[in-house]
Amino acid sequence: MKKIIFASKNKGKVREVEHILKDLNVHITSLEDINESIDIEETGSTFEENAKIKAKQVYDKFRIPTIADDSGLVVEQLNGAPGIYSSRYAGENGNDAANNKKLLNELRKFPEPHKAKFVCAAVYYDGKKFYTATGEMKGKIIHDKRGSNGFGYDPLFIPDGYNVTSAELPPEVKNSISHRFKAFEKLKEMIS
Question: Using CA atoms, how far apart are residues 124 and 135, in angstroms rounded to an integer?
C-alpha cells in the first residue's frame, strides 16, 4: 500500500479526502497524524499556487508523495473575497466564527442574492511532477447560520439546486457535490 502525506491538519478536510480517495490503494497520513508542526507560508496569489507550495514543502521535508489543497470561498459582490484568504479572513488568529461574522458584515451593504462559490485546487507531488485539478461548488450566502455537519463557511452557504446549507446536508451528499470532491475526483484519475 502506497503511503501519501496530506499536507493538512484540518480534520474535516482530511476526512473528506480520505473518503474520496478510499478506492485507491493508498494510506493517507495527515500532518496531525504524525504530530508534525511545519509552518508553511501561503505566498501564492492563487489557490493552485498555494496548494503547490504546501505539497512541495511537505514533500521536501519527508520525501514521501504528498497531496495538498487550497480552497476557499469566492463571493461575487466582494470581488472574489475572501478567496485565498478564506481561512484567515478575520486575521491570522481568526477562526470560523470570526470569519463568518466578517463575511456577513461585508455583505450587509449588498442586496441579496449573494452569489458565491467554493473553489478547491488539489495537488499531488511526487518529487518530480505536480498533478493539479480544480473543482467548484456554486451557490449563495445567507445571513443566518444553519446546520452542524460542516466547517468554515458551510453554515452560511446554500449550494445551487438545494434549499439547505452545506452544513445541513448529510456528509455523503455534501461529499458528492463539493468543490473538494470534484477536484480530488479529477486528481484521483491522474494518480491512479
Answer: 15
The model carries a pTM of 0.91
Q: How confident is the model at residue 69 (pLDDT cuts 50, 70, 90)?
A: very high
Q: How far is CA 14 from the centre of its chain?
A: 10
CB 75 within 8 A of CB 103: yes
Alpha carbons 72 and 156: distance in angstroms, whole number: 13
Alpha helices (H) along 110-191: 171-177, 179-191
Active site residue 70: yes
SS3 content of the chain, % helix, strand, coil (to 5): 35, 25, 40
Q: Parallel, antiparallel, or unpaired: how do β-strands 114-125 and 130-141 relate?
A: antiparallel
Instruction: Catalytic residue, from 70, 96, 154, 160: name it.
Output: 70
Helix axes 11-20, 179-191, angle to 10 degrees: 50
Contact 42, 54 (CB under 8 A): yes
The CATH class that applies to domain 2-191 reads: alpha beta
Give the separation between CA 27 and CA 61, rounded to whole angstroms.
18
Alpha carbon distance 153, 165 (integer Å): 10
What number of other Cβ atoms are within 10 A of residue 62's Cβ?
17
